[in-house]
Amino acid sequence: QVQLVESGGGLVQAGGSLRLSCAASGRTISSYDMGWFRQAPGKEREFVVAIRRSGGNTYYADSVKGRFTISRDNAKNTVYLQMNSLKSEDTAVYYCAASDHTTALAAAAGYGYWGQGTQVTVSS
């Protein structure tokens, strides 16, 4: 099975940018559809973005369209989340997840493997 480790979180001012990384080990990410979710204090975990294992199809939550970009480098076994024009409402713990079978990429239940999360804090 695959293990996932996120990095790249931190404190940034509104309007700034961050790039999160999700490094995988144990198995190659080319076997998985990959997603990013986030959870703010007191809120449910929510879908942010996902990318199919082929890399050809991506899916974004409306709240991040045009600002966030997901990409994958199968050779480095890493998935990235480039976040631009950050807003205070983007503040959350961001989780990387891997799925080997789901058709509903926006549903957390479809992912069997999760990282430990990385904190993103956007100050206004």
Structural commentary:
This protein is mainly beta. The protein is 0% helix and 49% strand. The protein is built from no helices and eleven strands. Strands 2, 4, 5, 6, 9, 10 and 11 form a seven-stranded mixed sheet that branches. Strands 1-3-8-7 form a four-stranded antiparallel sheet, with no helix packed on it. The radius of gyration is 13 Å and the shape is globular. The model has no long low-confidence stretch (mean pLDDT 95).
Number of helices: 0
Helix content estimate: under 10%
Uncertain ranges: none
Task: Provide the succession of SSEs.
Answer: EEEEEEEEEEE
Largest sheet: 7 strands, mixed
User: Radius of gyration, Cα only, in angstroms?
Assistant: 13 Å
What share of the residues does DSSP label as strand, in percent?
A: over 45%
Q: Give the rounded overall mean pLDDT.
A: 95
The tally of strands reads 11
Q: Strand pairing plus helix content: what structural class?
A: mainly beta
The shape is globular
Distance between the ends? 40 Å
List the helices and strands and how they pair.
Blueprint: E1 3-7, E2 10-13, E3 18-25, E4 33-39, E5 46-51, E6 58-60, E7 68-73, E8 78-83, E9 92-99, E10 113-114, E11 118-123
Parallel strand pairs: 2-11
Antiparallel strand pairs: 1-3, 3-8, 4-5, 4-9, 5-6, 7-8, 9-10, 9-11
In short:
The protein is mainly β and 124 residues long.
